[in-house]
Amino acid sequence: MSRSRTLTVALVQERNHGDAAANLAIIEARVAEAAAAGAKLVLLQELHNGPYFCQHESVDEFDLAETIPGPSTERLGALARKHGVVIVGSLFEKRATGLYHNTAVVLESDGRLVGKYRKMHIPDDPGFYEKFYFTPGDLGFTPIDTSVGRLGVLVCWDQWYPEAARLMALAGADMLLYPTAIGWDPSDIQDEKTRQRDAWVLSHRGHAVANGLPVLSCNRVGHETSPLGAAGIDFWGNSHVLGPQGEFIAEAGTEATLMVVDVDLGRSEHVRRIWPFLRDRRIDAYNDLTRRYID
């Protein structure tokens, strides 16, 4: 029987409070609460420093970008060191003038920046015009080693791609983490809203089951108006923590909240013994997966 290895994790599900200073102040308070409750790993939502600016295309928004390392990683690193926790954040990275990424950062409990992941899959949908801002990532699907385990960090739109989760698992990730910003068009009918949210949750549950790993997904909440005068986005929250069989360990609602829960990382060993999906993969038959489409 596999040994239990419990890790207390926290997800900070928040709304936008106006600007980076205000949002980081809230994050500091939430991380302090999480640490006081015993958390050793804290996951933040996608682009947590400000509004979800990708609802329109404007060159002025590039002023929000910053270098990594930079001011936010310094502040998050100090926060991680103060409370002895690992923090996974999400920033608008300025790599060079005219070259920007949507980048997750990992701060070790001693404050060091130990890794980053640049979002690989970039959407371009109504209200989510990310291709205007972000160059697709070039760091690959490489887990980041920390004191709490090997973190398979992905970002939002990556969550729809089983290949991304699988490659993180094949590289030895102990868990999958998704900083996220996803929501409804307020004008959609309720049935459509429900279908979208349920599909999003099911995608994460599928990644947990297929790879035998815990999954942590942290979404933002609140209504954010569109600079284009459109309906804006209602970010639906529903952040969750899943076990390696896709079971819910915890799930949030649609309001700002701090979730602190225990995850047994040792269960992956047991689940992979009874469901040996990695053993039975037909790697000799998957070459066509590298094709765009099989005509």
Automatic annotation (TrEMBL):
UniProt keyword annotation of Hydrolase present: yes
Keywords per UniProt: Acyltransferase, Hydrolase, Transferase
Gene Ontology molecular functions: acyltransferase activity; N-carbamoylputrescine amidase activity
GO biological process, one term: putrescine biosynthetic process from arginine
InterPro entries (UniProt xref): Aliph_Amidase/BUP, C-N_Hydrolase, C-N_Hydrolase_sf
Protein name: Acyltransferase
Keyword Chloroplast among record annotations: no
Domain called CN hydrolase: residue spans: 7-265
PROSITE patterns named among the record's database cross-references: CN_HYDROLASE
